[in-house]
Amino acid sequence: MPPSRTQPTGSWIFKTDARKRYKLSDADLASLTPLSVLPNPRGGPHPVVKYSERDVQALARRLKEAATAAGPSSDGDLAKPNGKEILHTKAKNEYGLTTEQLRAIKPTRIEPNPYGDRLPPMKHYNLCDVVALAERLAAARTQSASSSSAAASSSRPARSPKKGRRAKRSPSPYEDYDGDWDGDGAFDGMSPDDAHAKLMGIFHDYGMH
User: What spans are recorded as compositionally biased (Acidic residues) (predicted)?
Assistant: First the structure.
């Protein structure tokens, strides 16, 4: 993880909020220099990470532009098959993509989930489309990392704030949660028992038990 800045300035946002609000992955946010990385006050396994919200917004904008840089792979609802395919969940896990980012490309086919109608359908993509998308996003992350590092090195220690003034924040009721849950494709290829166990784990992480 990049080194943290010594003095947060301006509006800041928790890592978990940044992921959910701006549809970013851990790989995306790893390109930014955090404002601070602190031990979890609730004893959770993940540290509390804060970023400049301006940096997060700029990153999200660059990634969106990169994701849509290459036009759709076909004019219809589905892409024309082109070589090897990859499942939605595997594309996310292996290439650090989010569901929102994968919407920039079209699946080659969408099938009912074999483990039940209550689970999301299974989407297959051209592997070459996923790789091309991941490469465009990686280039955008590199640009973001350079900008974030430059901002961190040029920042000066802030003066002691006046009494009653604090840095603005984006409050989070789940600041100690750092799981990966965005719904679409989360249960691809899982048995009903495994899907139920994963769902219960998510509820537990959110304190919904």
Answer: 175-185
Please, what are the averages of pLDDT over each run of 10 residues along the chain (209 residues)?
52 94 90 93 90 94 79 68 96 92 93 88 95 92 68 51 50 41 54 60 50
Residue 19 has a CB neighbour count (10 Å cut-off) of 22
Which three-class secondary structure state does DSSP give residue 111? strand
Reference 121, options 107, 131, 134, 111; nearest CA is: 111
Per DSSP bridges, beta strands 122-126 and 109-111 are antiparallel
Collapsed DSSP state (helix, strand, coil) of residue 124? strand
Taking CA atoms, 176 is separated from 3, 49, 50, 104, 205, in Å, by 20, 9, 12, 30, 9
- pTM check: above 0.70: no
